[in-house]
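The instructor's notes for this session suggest beginning with a concrete chain rather than abstract definitions. Hand out the sequence below and ask the class to guess, before any prediction is shown, which regions might be ordered.
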Amino acid sequence: MNQKSNIIHGIEAKTSRSVTDQDDRVRCLTLNFFSYKMLIPNACVAEVIELSNIEPMLGAPEWFGGMMKWREQDVPVIVFEKVMNIEASKPRKYRRVLILNTPNNKGCCPFIALGCQSIPSLNIIDESRLAIANKKSEQATHIKLDGENYIIPKISFLENKVSEVMQG
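After discussion, reveal the predicted structure:
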């Protein structure tokens, strides 16, 4: 497997079955947020649902949108724009929510949710479509897909931030 494909595989998808044995393609969801485009390996996504009621959590940081019920579990909702220090909309303006599997399953949050505005589309990404972007951040991996800028959230980073809030 080459360097470009490892970009995607390093985003908690490295042990997933979303990679075929025949090539370096990965099934991913692409979606538009308010001010950026996001790419998420399909293996990281548990479900995409319509937004339901989000209960705010008193004293939580601004990026922590609150808690919502999903399959009879409390799932923390993250306002990813705030994590990235980008001007964000209020969580209630989201239309859908991505329920993501957390890679380390820290106990308090086996799932986290990211609100999103658009309907994600499934794409099969291969190395010829990827380029490494120069920008770096601890919250996301920055790539170019077909010449356009995308971010891939670092779900382990988000899981750790949520765990700090939930235990704190």
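Then share the key points. The domain at 3-167 is CATH 2.40.50.180 (OB fold (Dihydrolipoamide Acetyltransferase, E2P)). The chain is about 15% helix and 40% strand.
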